[in-house]
């Protein structure tokens, strides 16, 4: 098994795609007005309209009501924080070094989903995420 993507369901695909393009620097690829994907070397962030939910099961997913944290490994979380200041409206915390060795920046996207940008800073964390 290989984990390949996470999908956010939203009422406004264009708004979230623009937000994640700006936050990550990754260009979205659009299948149609209801579906966009931002693909990195390790996984894809898919953004789909609420209009796509009935294709799976009506009411199965509700926008801005799902409990996940979307995480991105970045080279310099403090630098990313500076770049996002004035753009991100809801920072949950400033860059903070966590007990497990990552320096993390937690914020909310326009739909309220939690996003964590992190940089490994201890040797154990650096080794874990070595590319």
Can you walk me through this structure?
With 131 residues, the chain is of the alpha+beta class. It has helices at residues 13-24, 77-84, 123-128, and strands at residues 5-10, 29-32, 35-39, 44-49, 69-73, 90-91, 96-97, 102-108, 114-120. Strands 5, 6, 7, 8 and 9 form a 5-stranded mixed β-sheet that branches. It has a 4-stranded mixed β-sheet with strand order 1-4-3-2, with helices on one face. The chain is globular and about 45 Å long.
Task: Give the secondary structure arrangement, pairings included.
Layout: E1 5-10, H1 13-24, E2 29-32, E3 35-39, E4 44-49, E5 69-73, H2 77-84, E6 90-91, E7 96-97, E8 102-108, E9 114-120, H3 123-128
Parallel strand pairs: 1-4, 5-9
Antiparallel strand pairs: 2-3, 3-4, 6-8, 7-8, 8-9
Structural class: alpha+beta
Percentage beta strand: 25-35%
Low-pLDDT residue intervals, each spanning 5 or more residues: none
First-last Cα distance: 20 Å
* Tally of separate helices: 3
Percent helix: 10-25%
Radius of gyration over alpha carbons?
A: 15 Å
Shape: globular
Give average pLDDT, whole number: 91
The number of distinct β-strands equals 9
N-to-C order of helices and strands: EHEEEEHEEEEH
Tell me about the biggest sheet? 5 strands, mixed
């Amino acid at each position: 098994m290989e984990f390949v993507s996470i999908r956010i369901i939203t009422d406004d695909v264009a708004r979230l795609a623009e937000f994640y393009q700006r936050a990550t620097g990754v260009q979205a690829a659009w299948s149609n007005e209801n579906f966009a994907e931002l693909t990195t070397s390790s996984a894809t962030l898919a953004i789909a309209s609420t209009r796509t939910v009935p294709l799976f099961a009506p009411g199965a997913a509700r926008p801005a009501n799902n409990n996940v944290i979307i995480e991105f490994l970045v080279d310099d979380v403090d630098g990313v924080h500076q770049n996002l200041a004035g753009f991100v409206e809801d920072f949950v915390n400033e860059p903070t070094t966590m007990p497990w060795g990552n320096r993390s920046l937690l914020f909310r996207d326009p739909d309220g989903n939690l996003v964590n940008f992190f940089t490994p800073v201890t040797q154990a964390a650096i080794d874990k995420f070595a590319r």
